[in-house]
Amino acid sequence: MKKVILGFLGASLLSGTVLGFSDNVSKHVQNVADNTGVFTELEQKFAFHGYKSIRRGEFLEWIFDNKNINIDAYQNENISDIFIDVKDNSYVSAGYALGILTQFESDGKFLKNRKLTRIDAVKMLFALEGVSVVQNAGTEMHNFWGDLPTSVKDKNLILVAIEKGFLQNKATLTSKISLIKPYDYLTKNDAAWMLYVLNNKSEENSKDLNSQKFNNLKRVEELLQSQYLRQNELEENELEDAAISGMVTSLNDPYSVYLPQEKAKAFTNYINEEFEVEKEYAGLGVAIQPATNGGLVITEIFKGSPASVSNLQEGDVIIAIDGVDILDLSVSDIVDKIKGEVGTSSVLRIERNGKTLTKSFVRKKIFIENYSTVSSEIKDHILWIKVRSFKSFTSRDFKKILRENITDNSGVRGVIIDLRFNPGGLMNVAQEMLGEVLPDGSIAVRLYDSKELEDIYYVDGSADYTEIPLVVFQNEYSASASEIFSAAIKDYERGDIIGTTSFGKGIAQQLFTLSRGSLKVTTSEFRSPLQNIIHKVGVTPDHEMRNQSDESYFYEAKLRLK
Q1: What is the CATH number of domain 372-560?
Q2: What pLDDT score was predicted for residue 368?
């Protein structure tokens, strides 16, 4: 299973994202065009129109031209007996002979000019390549996708297609969960991407997998199973898990991790909770993210929550729960410790301004839908908008605040967008919010893969507020989508950035489902519109302020919003 994860820095408020394949004519598409010649001369000469749907016959031709298959060797004079609308089409004859058109045979017509669905395209490619679809493929990731087919066979087919990279997420800005849209029509961009993946898979399959290093790995396993003293302590699955974990750990990438089966299920549940807009749980009532020097920093206190009753504050760093040090625990494990039954209590050890404090709290029911990720106030004719994370509904609330407060008669003379302690979230939400304050056609972010192939993502909004003076607040806990927003504002000189250098999370991960467990691995890097690197660098402010009060921040903003 494949899923791009933009940033997992926080909990309770969303800090991950899912990205789909861009509808822009990318270098992926150009790579296929240059190396395979699958596109017609007209398409290469004029606009590719990658956003348009591809037709059945057209995709069939692309497949054969891409694979350099000699269609003359597969002709069938009686093809019209199979498809009554086909007389002498050599591509259809070859497709039938190779068994890649079976899903169309029951209709008795191929209908080459009909648009092709995404699932039918997958069936064609899998039949050509002889890809087997196992029963219960990607079982632990079923809940990750909100629109899998109801048919078990088709569901498994789609899950394998996602895992192998043929299908990518098609979630919209308002989606609560990832969407694969198997019955939507395939675009030319998507078709080109499939062929690009197909070429790479063919290259991978041609490599010698029986190299000495894999023989050594297998030999070690055999020796342990035959020679190790305590045979009854050996578990084959644990040996495999340890071997895979070792390979991933050697990357020295804290964002790439192998998740054995149980941890994969827990991680999936954690992600599903993060993508769910309306949810409830019993806990502390805070948003958290990893602190720069270890522990978890509280980035938001929910009003009326146990955290507010216990006088916890934004910026407090949790270092222990009920006497247990949390420095070596994952975020999801820590969240499990904070949550619990209503009425139960726990004791936190926190650090605040260099001092260690102890705070106890009693868990109560927390209703997330009662807490918006965006809030605002008007002060001295300046609209101050606090954005706590980039969830699916954040852009909606952001636009509503702008619309209700910036009118001809409101007297608002400037806007502050406060991204301090914002761990990130959905990239497309950042795109939409940027679209309100940057002109149409502005670049929101550039995404690069391991081959330096680039996808450009543009702002997506009304551009109704491009003239009003703007200031952005950030700090060292502003990460991921927050940095995308700040970097774009800075590159286009749309407003001043005030605060400290941001966190520096400029990479994205994908989640791949294995037969047992999952692999989360870094697959891409995002950079600013001017191609400035964000990862491990962050976005530098125009005016630095560290550990200052809100009043001090506001005073600096006023100076720049005259």
Answers
A1: 3.90.226.10
A2: 66
